[in-house]
Amino acid sequence: MRHYVIRVQGTLSRDLTDAFPSLTADSEPAQTVLHGYLADQAALAGILNHLDMLGISILEVLQVPPPPNGH
Description:
Elements: E1 2-9, H1 14-18, E2 24-28, E3 31-38, H2 41-53, E4 58-64
Antiparallel strand pairs: 1-3, 1-4, 2-3
């Protein structure tokens, strides 16, 4: 499993973030950062496709090292 950060435009509602149970959402000014562990590239592609279908602008996608506490 790999740790990903997906930054999107706008503040996503709770209903929208609940659509991505494998990710944690953090709101920032005018952006939302989704992050979490995904099993493979297919899981990442599925999330990106879902965001696109919802009309949510994807600003950045990063694969990052796991946080120091491992979560």
